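Researcher: Please generate the 3D structure of the following complex. Treat every line as part of one assembly.
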Amino acid sequence: MTGGYGGSILRINLTDKKVVKEPTPDDLIRDYIGARGFIIRTLFKELAPGTDPLGPDAKFIMAAGPLTGLFVPSSGKIQTGGKSPLTGGYGEANSGGHFPEELKLAGYDMIILDGQSEKPCYIVIDDDEVKIEDAGELWGKGSFAVEETLKKNLGEDFQIASIGPAGEKLVKIACITHDFGRQAGRTGLGAVLGSKKVKAICLRGTKAIPVHDLEGLMKVGRRMYEQCFTNPAFELWQTYGTSAVVNWANRIGAFPTRNFRGGYFEQFTNISGPRMRKDIVVINKACYSCAMCCGKYSHAKTDKYDVYVEGPEYETTAMIGGDCALGNIKDVAYGNHLCDDYGIDTISGGSIIAFAIECFEKGIITEKDTGGLVLKFGDPESVFSLIKMIAMREGIGDVLAEGSKAAAEHFGADSIKFAMQVKGLEQSGYESRRAPAMLLSYMTSDIGAQHRPSWAVTHDIATGRDSAEGKAGKVIELQHTRPLFDTLGVCRLPWIEMQVPVADYAEAYRKATGIDYSEQDLISISERIWNLTRMFWVREVPGFGRASDIPPARVYEEKLTGGSTDGGILEREKIEAMLDDYYNLRGWTNDGIPTEQKLKELGLDWVNLP
Ligand code: SF4
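Model: Done. Output below.
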């Protein structure tokens, strides 16, 4: 068995309850490394083109990487994947905590679910033993209650990943929750689990993860930790986590405000990291093997609610705070709690609510549509009510549960111009009209408008915020480097914030696995994975091409209001010019399709072009 890997893939068919274990294939390890690489290769090879993402033939996958659970900083990460019910293209979500390493300790690199159970069920994986249990009593319950109940019944040493009512109701922004508040949030994969009638996956692993050169791994691991501990920013990250970004994003005018109409929220100090720390944080919380512990466990109490929640982290504060104009950190935390418990993605949730409020302001929807609810920016009740209505598909929530793109198509009246999404996925928390590289990152991300594969705001600040020239190369470099961490099964934050070099991760990979890949070899595989993902979109989404990468018209037709980016806009010509550069550098056609030559170069000649 190759070091670093659990060694097995677990397949469970929910229709006939068949469980199959198979060794993780050597060629999969060699050509796709792990986690996101394993997911896209499996989907591309095993999913028939045009499969209904919520039908019995759809696959739901959770996959760890070769460094997940090992002695390197922040190795408690996992990827969840499938065909997205929200976008119809490649769906993936990253999450961290203690669920991920449990998968490896049970001896698995990947769990693949297909089929559909007739009745609600939950899956218990206890090392080699796999059981499918009746979940009748849990169906309808919130994620927190489910996790608490299953831990009580099975034992504290089980890790639980579950869906809330939103996943059961096939809400297309439904997420999966584990570790009492960590989410595999994006692309609606909670609905895929819900369509299979799986309420939860429970894991316990007691095995050792094999390592090729343990002493060598310990040596490089110690060096990586040392780099974190001695970094001047270490304490800041422990104190504030990602909420430290709120003040900075407002200063540079990149904080989404009132459905991305501006990049500056005038009440930002009320929802900033220092305010959050002072008013609601109870204790720090970390994923497995992480010293940075960016997670914050908080208590939000007023005369209307009294809840505990992990967070809010930056993206949630940006989307439920600034984008919906909530200027009280307790209200943001309560909104976060509701999303987690009902099981919806806070980024898409916040964005869709901001979109609905703007539609209401413009008279595109009225009290007749909302059942008497008056929607207003800055009004906590508007936000809390819509979270519940979306999660339960009540009233107008049923339309919004399909995502902002589908809702805009339903409402009409040009609302598509300010539905802030690309490829159907709502944009995450950076306003980017004066950050062209960041905008290009959103336009070309592999799942829709997500920051994870390329976060380029600082590059824009360094190279000119109105210039679109020369941005494509940096975005491509980031799109190969950042997803590599998701492929290895580790958090990227020690690299970004503590400057742990990529070369150390490559060395840790060699020591763990015994596979002699250089840093460049790993980056080249990351490029293969990126191109295969693109081809999945080409295969699954009719008419996919250049138009799919264009952002909503608000970006190039409306000027920003407020803050340091007031008056900012990015002209359509500049957007088109960036795309030309990007496609050219990637070796894709002018319509954004990888060429035959490019696919061959990357060892993807088995992939058919349309
Ligand atoms: Fe988890 Fe935060 Fe640590 Fe990353 S930095 S591993 S997200 S606690």
